[in-house]
Amino acid sequence: MAYSEEALTRANEELEKRRQTYAMRTMELQEKVRSSVPGLSDAEREYRAMGLLRMRARLSGDVREAERLSEGLAEQRKKIDSMLAARGFSRSDLEDQHYCHECGDTGVRPDGSVCSCKEQLMSEFERSRINSISPLEMCTFDTFSLDKYSSDSPDGKISPRANMTGILRRCMAYADSFPNRRNLLLMGSSGLGKTHLALSIADRLIKKNVDVVYCSCSSVFDRIREEMSDFSHHSDTLESLKRCTLLILDDLGSEYASNQTKALLYDVINSRMSSSLSTIITTNYTKRSQVETVYGEKISSRLFGNFEYLPFFGDDIRLKH
Q1: Strands (E), the chain
Q2: Burial level of 154, CB count in 10 A (0-12/13-18/19+)?
Q3: How far apart, in whole angstroms, are the C-alpha atoms of residue 18 and residue 11?
């Protein structure tokens, strides 16, 4: 996966901090061990000298001497291990300390491939960069109150509270069963809790270390257009939206629905569907015809054919105390 230069730079900086931190820990631990085990430093020097002699014997072709020195090295290693154990230490206490033992905090495995720890750092920085576009305080299911919804059932229809009780259960089940390759479309007038529930799902999944990106449509597409305005016509933000494990596009319809925006939206939705990645979209539109009028049949068919539709209705709960 391609990451932005900013994410790569910040990941390298974090890896350098880790190397410095664990190099200091190594020095402190080794100093503690050697000062606590009498004769250890002398035994280590003898071990290193014997190892040098064995190397010379091998280079000169003296097989018998090399074998004799190998046996001596094994005995000396046992002696050092016994000295360490007598003081409550082990051989690992003298080895270099690392946050990641797979790459030694370099970000690169011995085979030359990028280590998963560096991939994780770059992913975290990318996610933070995208989420900073719309910095909303995280909501939770615990703070979602059904009491603000009316229990009245005019004309015998389901009440707003009963409807929201069902939607709340479905959203909680969605989070608990993730990854489930399902998409959600939360539709209804403003002030009915769509963003709250979308962010509640995000809150629960982020705690499970799921790669979640939340963004407001009113700002993210502007960001993408700015990034694509240079000669490269490439957007790191757009690529991040396509590849995160869960994408939450909030308030669809608040953005300027230009032909470019529609094309970008279709690209994101279609790419994520092709990759079996989950998407949650909230919108203040209340009817499919409204969505189709603004975005066209292709996007509308994707949303209503491949997303689970959750209808919100009732009075604006933000006006209730």
Answers
A1: 184-187, 212-216, 246-252, 278-283, 308-311
A2: exposed
A3: 11
Distance between terminal CA atoms of the chain? 47
Cβ-based burial of 101 (10 A; exposed 0-12, middle 13-18, buried ≥19): exposed
| Number of residues that this document lists for the chain | 321
CB atoms within 10 A of CB 308: 12
Specify the pLDDT at position 137: 59
Token code pair at residue 43: 């035994």
Cα–Cα distance between 95 and 74 in angstroms, integer? Answer: 18
* Cα–Cα dist 304/308, whole Å: 7
Query: Going by C-beta distance under 8 Å and a sequence separation of 6 or more, which residues neighbour residue 304?
Result: 185, 288, 291
Q: What is the mean pLDDT of the chain?
A: 88
- The answer, yes or no, to whether residue 78 has pLDDT greater than 70, is yes
Cis, bond preceding 179 (omega within 30 deg of 0): yes
Residues 244, 245, 246: CA angle, nearest 5 degrees = 95
State pLDDT tens for residues 308-318: 999 999 887 76
CA distance 210 to 197: 17
Q: How far is residue 290 from each of residues 187, 252, 295, measured CA to CA in Å?
A: 11, 12, 9
Going by the DSSP 8-state scheme, the letter that residue 229 receives in this structure is: T
The confidence band for 84, taking pLDDT boundaries of 50, 70 and 90, is: very high
The answer to whether 278 touches 183, Cβ cutoff 8 Å, is: yes
pLDDT value of residue 196: 92
Name the residue among 269, 280, 248, 288 with its Cα closest to residue 170. 280
